[in-house]
Fold:
Amino acid sequence: MATPTPALDPRIAAAFDALRRGDARGARSAFERLAQGGGTVLIWVGLAWACQALKDDAGLHAAADRALALDPRDLRALLLKADSLAARNDRRAALSFYSTIAGLYPNPDALPRDAADQVRRAHAAATRLSAEVYDHLQRELAEAGYDPGTASPRFTHSLALLSGKAQRYEQEPRSYFFPELPTVAFYSRADFPWLDAVEAATDDIRAELQALLAGPNVFAPYIEAEKDRPTDRSHTMLDSEEWTACYLWKNGTIVPEIAERCPKTMQALAHVPLERVKARAPFILFSKLTPGAWIRPHSGFLNTRLVCHLPLIVPEGCWFRVGAETRRWEEGKAWVFNDTIEHEARNDSSDTRIVLIFNVWRPELTATERDLVAALLESVDTA
Structure:
């Protein structure tokens, strides 16, 4: 990193001049004298650079630590520590400093050129060291009997989080949070024995959908402005024809003109534990995503429910991410996910994608809790 020459203090400038000339010993002596009065971040960084040139590792760390005590975000001191630890082959410690830099400065392009280059180097080093640590852990665990193909998925996820291979996502409902419910992105099929019957009706449900598509348009924008609520005009899907819906149930009320045309769909969902809240739920809909459409990352309103997708028309190139896990829809294969964890969807194909969507209660809630949540939400609506 280039050594600055502050214009305000000739003594500091002289110390940096000595460092530039290659007189590391003279520079260290000068910075040590300057530091006797307490020292600024720049003085301690200068002393650390002088110690680096003299291969005085202990002195470098002591000076860099003094600089970071004054300013924990100082890029120069963080890099000095990271590079020195990497040279020692202390991967974990070096990774912690490079990762700190990456977290503090996520966008190198916004920085001056010299700083940007150093931050990019830190990003690259963090990625490389993270991969090395992950490989080391995999080897050690393999000797202990770990097999990612058969091991607990939760443990495998914890390993990915520890090594930086995965990002940690939490439930972030925008409206109502029910505590002590697990943070699970995609739920296990074992929790929903009724899924098999829903999937078995895929062909019948698709046929009813295709009959709707053959007639006058019954799809409307999924996100529409509400007359009596503030509207986020920046939302990319507001009143958009890229993401549209056709409802069989909406806001807890059946839509007879659609539901009557889809009797087999309604029958397939008859034994599903749908979320039921007066004037809110259930909702059941066909969701259409046009070619190239992207539903940007967002989270849902309530963590007391889960969302089920049954893919009906899915061209190649359509994907869905919840938290750290990305999946591709497969026609006739349903999944259940927590929509209060950040999620997004994209249709990268040249054809339309349509899935059946409906909400169910969280299986962890007792019957009494479901009734109380419903009563609470209904009370909110009448407040």
Q: What stands out?
A: The chain has two domains: 10-133, 189-382. The mean pLDDT is 92. The radius of gyration is 29 Å. Residues 113-143 form the longest helix (31 residues).
